Fold this sequence. Notes:
This protein has 118 residues and is α/β, with parallel strands linked by helices. The chain has two domains: 11-85, Rossmann fold (3-Layer(aba) Sandwich), CATH 3.40.50; 88-118. The chain has helices spanning 19-23, 42-50, 90-109, and strands spanning 29-33, 54-59, 79-81. The longest helix is centred in the last third of the chain and has 20 residues, at 90-109. The protein starts with 18 loop residues before the first helix and ends in a 9-residue tail after the last helix. The mean pLDDT is 89.
Amino acid sequence: MKAIFHYAVSPGLQRLLDAAAIAAMKPGAVLVNTAHGGLVDEAALVAALRDGRLRAAGLDVFAEEPVAADNPLLALDNVVLAPHVAWLTPETFDRSLGIAVENSRRLKDGDALVHRVV
Length: 118
């Protein structure tokens, strides 16, 4: 059985995957978090990875970013780390580049920008 979710962190979802939730996972499971570091209790994750409860973890987010050099997750052999670029597909890159080019044209012409955030 697989459980896949991708939540944003809100007050009720901090450390959604705590020690109890991790203990309820199938032994040898692999935890992948590309959503938000605050969803996972990192101390509980480290403990489960060290004692073999979890086989591995794949992370591109951390509870505190930038990740501290002494974060124990960085020293574990059963953790794969990546920069937070899970969203970056060829399609999203092309769309982002297209918007940047369009906004450059609009800026030059004095027009309102697309997706302006203020």
